[in-house]
Design a protein that fits this description.
- The strands form two sheets. This protein has a four-stranded antiparallel β-sheet with strand order 3-4-5-6, covered by helices on one side. Strands 1-2 form a two-stranded antiparallel ribbon.
- Helix 1 (about 5-20) crosses helix 2.
- The chain contains two helices and six strands; from the N terminus they run ααββββββ.
- By secondary structure, it is an alpha+beta fold.
Length: about 140
């Protein structure tokens, strides 16, 4: 898997989701931005979908998730807190605790547990309120 391209494409998707999240349905640009997002998601799935589904299956097994594995784009939050430019050229994109796919697992009983993609590097993160645990990182 080309992790450099994956990271770049994932960041592009996140930024487009952030842009759409800032708009209201009655905004004149909403439909155009939504269409751009769907095109990016389709390209992302074409380029990385099969490989990321394998990764997600392994992660679901690792954390003993009772939930079904969804399409990889489901694990991208609707918004991330955008920060400063990183030395690598990308943007700091902080994961918000209310974002990601809700996961049910015996390992996390009674806790609001979510699984979400992060970037720089590409990784899958379990969030529980403010606590974040990396469960997979590029190259694994």
């Amino acid at each position: 898997m080309n992790f450099k391209q994956l990271n770049k494409d994932l960041e592009k998707l996140i930024l487009k989701k952030n842009e759409l999240n800032r708009l209201t349905y009655d905004d004149k640009n909403y439909d155009d931005v939504e269409e751009e997002l769907h095109d990016l998601e389709d390209d992302f799935l074409d380029n990385f979908g099969d490989e990321l589904e394998k990764v997600l299956n392994k992660v679901h097994e690792k954390i003993a998730a009772d939930s079904d594995v969804l399409l990889p784009i489901a694990y991208i939050g609707s918004y991330y807190k955008q920060g400063d430019k990183l030395p690598s050229g990308g943007l700091e994109l902080a994961i918000m605790p209310d974002q990601g796919v809700i996961i049910e697992s015996e390992k996390f009983p009674g806790k609001n547990t979510r699984l979400i993609f992060g970037v720089h590097p590409v990784r899958l993160i379990i969030t529980q309120q403010e606590k974040q645990t990396i469960v997979w990182e590029e190259g694994q």
